[in-house]
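Let us practice reading a record.
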Amino acid sequence: MWSYLISSVELFSNQKSFSLGVDTTRNLWLLLHFKDLEIKHKTLLYQVDNGIRQRKSTKHPVRKMVKKHTTTAELLRYLSDKPYKIIHLELEFTNGWKIKQMPYIALWFYNNSTEERDKLITRLLSISGQGPIDISKLEENHTYSFISHDTLVKVDPEGLPLPDEFWSEERVNNWKKEYDKIYNSSSIDDSESVPF
């Protein structure tokens, strides 16, 4: 089984944002492709991790970085020689784009338009040696996983779409009701034994 740089893609419901499944502990270098963008705001939480030299009983506190950086290249250069484990990273750029790190598993990208979103997905996939894919065939709020460099499959083909931060409270409540109807354990016949 091949391990791809980008393992999955999910489009969000605002039609301008998406997520890519990426091992963010080893692949933050992907952010170098945004080195020309100026950072407007940054949130970075980190913890010192000295690896094998650190005693098991040593627990460093989680800290918020206050040092200013104007570009992602400058930020990544600074982080490259630090023994930091990144707990949370959010970058907002002056052009309106945002990037959020979901620790260890994904990067979320926020763009200004559907066209920018599609161009960025295509660009990042080509950088990783993957793609091209037909973005127009992807359903919003469903996760698609790569089974080859250019073939995606829906992770849960029969499942409900996953809520995102752009859903209204009413839509989330309706989703919860639908989820309960489908997956609620009370709908299972009590006479059947359910292994746990």
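A brief commentary: The radius of gyration is 20 Å.
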